[in-house]
Each structure stands twice: as structure tokens, then as C-alpha cells.
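Page 47, continued from p. 46.
Same chain as before, 381 aa.
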Amino acid sequence: MVRRVAVAPAIRTWATTPRNNRHVGAQVAICAPILPTSQPAIRTARTAFNSATAEVRTHSEAYSLPHRCLKAMLEEMGINTSAHLERSLTPSQTFSQHADWWEKNIQPMHQPSSRNSSHYILKKHLRPRFGPMLMDFITQEFVQEWIAELQSEGKLKPRSIKNFWKVLRLVQGKPRVKDWSIRLPKNPRKEQRWFTPEEIQKIIDGAWGQYKCLFQLAWATGMRSGELFGLKIEDLDLENAIVHICRSAWQHLEVTPKSDAGYRDVDIEDATVKMLKDHLGERKAGLVFPSRNGTPLANRNVNVDALRVICKRLKIQNGGLHAIRHGKISLLQVMGVPGDLIMKWVGHTSLKVTSVYTHFSDQFRKETVAKLVPSSQLQQP
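Result:
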């Protein structure tokens, strides 16, 4: 007969020898109590032990067998490891507790726009799902099932689901998720709207007030919208035709540029210099493009109140300031400007990012093909 008793933090195992019908027992201490999730491993070890005791014939075998079976069971459960001991000695945190710490100590280091979106995602989506769970129980499999569930519901776009995972990964930290392999839904392939040189010239001609100069500068530099809104007169070196970009704006507040590459100098042509001088007049300080209240503009002021109206009047496809940036980078690529110079002017960190902003018109592709030497004219070796 075999009987087995589990007591934390030790497991006592007994075996009865066929020869003298005596109980032989052993007790082995373990690093931490058995977790409820280890029951499958316990059942596996119990089956192996019961099967093995049928072959026991000597007192020494009966005494060593419980140790061997218990050792195999503990190895399968992963209990007698330094990692398990460390987890056992460290108080477990719930996701909500760790998220509170993250929002207090890590989130303030991010850009205001990122802080705003991550706080919303945490409050609306992550805390309701993971809040009461212990951090150790948030596994790769559990997260993958959650992502698959979000996709199957069909209420969220793939980009939103990717943003949820991005924030969850940031909150958990690299040590917890560095070895994870999460499959995310793919975004449907759709080309970003970009303005052609002909379209942007019509937009500039159809603009009014300071929007005319703003669109001209946006096209001349490829600046991000926040960089345009935060630009100050002291950032302009009109004598040398250079714009020093060292700040940005978000929700009427001045912030730093998007990245270290965002700090840069951009050269502009004479026509833009003249338009800026006419726009500034006698002003020597302050924002180049202030709102009525003297604060930085916001995207809605420009994209909705101005660009959308102008595009509708001109009967061209609607687009925002980002479409101007895409169009400018595309033009620089078509003109053969060195990639490193384009990166410097637009504040990109790699040519791979610049390629995402590059678009070619049908006319340009056909003209390029027409310039190629026909294969029939190639010299044969």
C-alpha cells in the first residue's frame, strides 16, 4: 500500500515493502508551499510513484524510491529553483498595484501625448481586465488569448489592439515580457494621404490669414504639426534662412520635440523667408503662429477649421498637416536629395522610417520607366 501526504513546506511520502509489511517513510523540505496550479504535476508524480512501488523488493529500495519520485515531481513543478524561491519570498503585487507605481514613477517620463493615451488605455481597457490579477499569473498565453478575444469581437481596429499591447508591455516591464512572442492582428494595407506639389500650391493660394504662411512653412520644411505650433520667433534665423527646431506643442502647451532627432536645423528657400518676414512684421518675440488667446494652435484649429474647408472648396481629397509632411518627403526623394540630409531635415532616426513617408505618383513611375534603356538595346557580353 502507498499513501502520500502533502504538507507545506514539506512533502512526506510512505511506501510499504512486500517483505515485512513495514512502512518506510521520508520527508523532504522544499523551498516554498505547493501552489494550487501544481496539482497536475502532483497527480503525475503520484501515478509514477504508485507504478514504481510495484517493483519494490528490498528495504533500501523502498526507502530511496520516495526520494527519487519526489525529486522528479519537484523538478517538473519548478519548485526547487532559485527563481521560485525569490518569487515566494517577494510579496506578490496585483496588476493594479503595479500600474499605480508605473503611472507615478515611469509614465511622467513620457511625452504628454503619450501620457494621455496610456492613462486612457489603462483606465478603460487594462485595469478592468487585469486589475485584480497577480503579476505572476499574467502569462504570455493569457495575454495572447485576450488579444484573440479582442480581435474576434470585431469592435476594435488592429491598430487599437496593438496600442493596448504596447501599453501593457510598458507597464509589465522588459524583464517580464522579453521572451514573449505575441501575435498581433495585421493592419489593412492603406496608403497614407499625401499632397502633391500641385495640390499644396492650390492650398496655399486658397488659405487666409496666418494659415497661408503656416502651410508655406510646413511645405518648405516638412515640420511636424506640433513643431509648427510651438515655433517661436527667436527660433528663426531669417538672415541665414534657417529654422531652428528645439520645441513642440501639444494641447496648447509647450513640450520638447518628439525625439532627440527632432532637435535640428532646417534650411528654407528665399520665397519662404520673404513670406515669414511679411507675416511677422515688427514682432520680435512670441509664437510665430499664435491662437487668438496667444497660446499654441491645436490640430483641430488647422485640420478642421482651415484645411478641411480649403480642400472642400478646391474639390480635392481631404488631408491634414501630416499629409503635407508626407508630400514634402516624397518630393525630396523624387528630386534625389541624399537620404541622410532628408533624415536631418525632417527629424527621422533612420532611412527605414523615411521610406514609410515616401510616395510616388503614377506619372513619376511612368516617366521613370520611359527613361530606362530598353532591354533590346543593352550590349550583349
